[in-house]
Amino acid sequence: MNGVTVVSHPLVQHKLTIMRKKETSTAGFRRLLREISLLLGYEVTRELELTTTEIETPLQTMQAPTLEGKKLVFASVLRAGNGLLEGLLDLVPAARVAHVGLYRDHDTLEAIEYFFKAPSDLADRLVIVVDPMLATANSAISAVEKLKQRGATNLRFLCLLAAPEGIERFTKAHPDVPIFTASIDERLNEKGYIVPGLGDAGDRMYGTK
Ligand code: URA
User: Annotated binding residue at 200?
Assistant: First the structure.
């Protein structure tokens, strides 16, 4: 089973603390999310494979490292995933983007896909699925299923906060997909919120409450 990486960098932890505070404004929350996504993105791309290519510096030719393979894909789980996406695209501007939109059917509690758009050759690319909150893991599990159905085989999951219950369910469903997070919080509450958490990530980043 692939594991969970908690990104313990002091800047990540400091920024996360400010994001958790209930008095942090929408603008502040959004700015911090963008900043933190750069740092999380650094960690989730740490193991990318390199190849070498011959280049000419002003002084001589050299074999220089470049990323191997096709451009990676950031797959945003709508809508909150988009908050992580912006910073990640600053870090890897040539990355491709997938969007996965899911809603929960009130009767069956099943995650229903209402939007899916992704590069057609997912099988050839590393796919980094992004969603700030791994709570019940319902949408994360479904999003990864939908991506696998379209061919993805090499995936990672990146979030800001994770609940132990969500990690357990996600790793049971997708043991091949490693998780990267800034924190593993205490638990889920009875409403499915992560505690202590930071509230509803989508509402906090878009000011919709
Ligand atoms: N989604 C959120 O935005 N926050 C939570 O605490 C759980 C799920």
Answer: yes
